[in-house]
Design goal:
Layout lengths: L8 E6 L4 H15 L3 E6 L12 H17 L4 E4 L11 H14 L3 E4 L7 H16 L18 E5 L16 E4 L4 H9 L2 H10 L5 H16 L4 E6 L10 H6 L2 E2 L1
Parallel strand pairs: 1-2, 1-4, 2-3, 4-5
Antiparallel strand pairs: 5-7, 6-7, 6-8
């Protein structure tokens, strides 16, 4: 395993509580096990994720569940305080994302795919991309600039079912073996009991954990392991080009 000295602070900036656990929870577990400082952040507290409760009641439940899931792997949880279905790429939201990264100083960031099945995910992806590129600029925030601040490695997580909004399959750049972490990932996801209730009522789904496992097994088959998570690395100008996850975990790359 490569040294973690330059890659020890990790941030998963997603749209809703449970998004990180569903899409990159196994990778976050591996990074935490390797000694990284891990942070999980959501744009919203999940205030629409109910058919029975008020926005305030469900937000309270879902934030507590998110914090419990993060705590189970020694991670910290943060919420930007945006609203479900209302995540936008605007100046106030960008400011929140920049200030969060300024406080955390991540060297490795995970977020949603740029094209995903719902716009909250796409907007959160844009926020993560924008903030990751500029947060280390001295004038970008009133929060102190930490010495380890940098343009981080940026990875996009698998969208739901591994397809874009038009149904086209996503080709990952990196497949991380989570065979040994799959059950812990399921335990993290199980912390989000209210999300299971919501999916059962709104989507007609009652396979919250099993659908996650099936997808992990499918990606594992592509990598030649029992279970895997798929990621696409952002390699645009100014971002690191080497695949740090492949260096750390001997991940399957394409």
């Amino acid at each position: 395993m490569a040294s973690l000295s330059d890659h020890h602070t990790v941030l998963a900036l997603m749209a809703h509580p449970d998004d990180a656990e569903m899409s990159c929870g196994g990778t976050l577990i591996r990074l935490a096990e390797a000694g990284c400082e891990v942070h999980i952040a959501t744009a919203t507290p999940g205030d629409w994720g109910t058919t029975r409760e008020t926005p305030w009641a469900i937000s309270h439940r879902r934030v507590l569940e998110a914090a419990q899931a993060a705590e189970s792997i020694g991670a910290a949880y943060h919420c930007l305080g945006e609203g479900d279905g209302m995540v936008v790429f605007d100046k106030p939201s960008i400011r929140k994302a920049i200030d969060l990264m300024r406080r955390v100083a991540p060297s490795l960031v995970f977020t949603h795919a740029p094209r995903d099945y719902m716009t909250d995910h796409e907007m959160a992806s844009q926020l993560a991309r924008a903030a990751s590129f500029v947060y280390s600029i001295p004038n970008a925030s009133d929060f102190p600039l930490l010495a380890k601040s940098c343009v981080p490695y940026l990875y996009y997580c698998d969208p739901m079912e591994g397809v874009d909004p038009l149904g086209n399959p996503i080709t990952p750049t990196t497949l991380v073996d989570i065979s040994s972490q799959l059950e812990r990932k399921a335990q993290m996801l199980a912390c989000h009991a209210s999300q299971r209730e919501w999916l059962r009522a709104h989507h007609g789904m009652d396979e919250y954990l099993e659908s996650m496992k099936r997808h992990a097994l499918m990606r594992g088959g592509q990598a030649g392991v029992a279970a895997a998570e798929a990621l696409v690395q952002h390699r645009g100008h100014g971002y690191p080009k080497d695949d740090v996850l492949a260096q750390l975990f001997s991940a399957h790359t394409t």
